[in-house]
Amino acid sequence: MKYDKQLGILLAGLIWLVATPLSAEEVPGLYEAEVPVESQDREVREVALRVALQQVLVRVTGRRRVLTMADMEPLLEQAPRYVQQFRYQAREANGKQEPTELLWVRFDKQAVDRLLRENRLPIWGRTRPATLIWLVVDDRRERELLSNDMDTRARQAIEQQARLRGLPLRFPLMDLTDRSVISVSDVWGNFEDNILQASARYDAEAVLVGRVAKTTSGGWSGRWNLYQEGRSQNWNAAGQALEEVIVPGINRLADLLAEQFARLGQNDQHEQLRVRVSDVNGLADFNRVMNYLKDLALVKEVSIEQIEANNLTLMLSSRHGRLAINQAVSLGHTLKAETVSMTPALSNLPMTGQVIAQDSPVEPQTRPVDLQYRLLP
Q: Domain total for the chain?
């Protein structure tokens, strides 16, 4: 009976993890790329490595315009210098006269990041805001609302471009819960209230609404709306193929999110931020906090200043400032921001340069914090 109870608790936990979406996700493979190649010749490989580095630079900076910079050309010529690993793999044939091999490349993260910093370019970490997509495709025969279990041409185009830009995306389930609050007509008409109501259960950072239609001339047109943090932005796209409307929609989404979350430091000096984290109960919680903060791309260094009861005070070194750090932390499901207390924290540690007599009692020093968080369960 004891084992049955433990199994029930384990299953309930697994169900909770599956059913409870998070507002951000970690994107794997940011420094990896795949490029179709005609052969394994050295000259062909060098060209492919250049293309692969272009993909990685766009994905990591979040900026397409990075490739148009005047001084980027000589850097791309040195692509082999940044390669950590590569291999060839077979490519699934699709009936067209296309290369049947792929060159898979992994670039050295530290080397690429150093390259970007030296050229004053932003670095977008792997924790990125998740976007929920509501997309209706009208092919002049019917209007179809894309759902999580559909494998369509539009879905494939969306996911391929999202991988290139490093975007975590979600599609609606369109189960009984969704169908009770939203319809194809709601999305096609861009009825904001119904769309945002149906989106609430997915807990996404952003909601992208797309309406793509085939024109009488055989081309395609699209209208896109992005809802995020109470704001709405919209844009249009047109092309002869469906992909020519889908790709600009995903690219514009990535551009807008990168402008907000991929920040460039304002100076070359590391700013020191004092951060307090509460509800740190034991070694496991301590390791969880430290590993999470050290893994943030915006954080250069984390050091311990004080451990008291269940409160942990740390010093973070970053080029990006308090606002950018707070924004990056808010994307994860580890720390929850709290209002910084007006009463400074008490520290039993001596101030820098202060000499304490061996037998003298240490007087607490007031040490205000820049950011304050609570560790989530």
A: 3
